[in-house]
Amino acid sequence: MGKKIELDPANVETLASYDCTLEEIANGLGVSADTLERRRKDHPEIADAIVRGRARIRTSLRKAQLKSAIKDGNPQMLKWMGAQMLGQSDKQDVKHGGGISVVYIDKDLKDI
């Protein structure tokens, strides 16, 4: 049996923060995916590093989306984030025998 390779949780977290798969993290650390999976199960600090890293990329992405929506006034991002975070949507209410009533999200949120 070869020498056991030590995994630095900081390196694991960094790779996870790039949204790497477990296979990509393992490759970046010079171990097999099976080894990483065993270490993740046997060493809570490795599992925690993966969770923290993946949370960092989601936080960074959300921050960039919010900046694009709010600071840059990106209308598509405002609409998407409104749908994702606030449950908003464009709705069409079709009434038979009359006309069409359309309700839209306020698209000029940047001035609020």
Summarize the structure.
This protein has 112 residues and is mostly helical. It has one domain.
Explained architecture:
This protein has 112 residues and is mainly α. It has a two-stranded antiparallel sheet. 59% of the residues lie in helices and 7% in strands. The chain has helices at residues 9-16, 22-29, 33-42, 44-71, 75-86, and strands at residues 91-94, 100-103. The model has no long low-confidence stretch (mean pLDDT 85). The radius of gyration is 23 Å and the shape is elongated. The longest helix is centred in the middle third of the chain and has 28 residues, at 44-71. It has one domain (9-111).
The proportion of residues forming helix, as a percent range, comes to 55-70%
Count structural domains: 1
Percent of residues in beta strands: 5-15%
Number of helices, where a helix is a run of at least 4 consecutive DSSP H or I residues: 5
Looking at the structure, what is the overall shape? elongated
Write the layout of secondary structure elements.
Layout: H1 9-16, H2 22-29, H3 33-42, H4 44-71, H5 75-86, E1 91-94, E2 100-103
Antiparallel strand pairs: 1-2
List key phrases describing it.
112 residues, mainly alpha, two-stranded antiparallel sheet, 5 helices
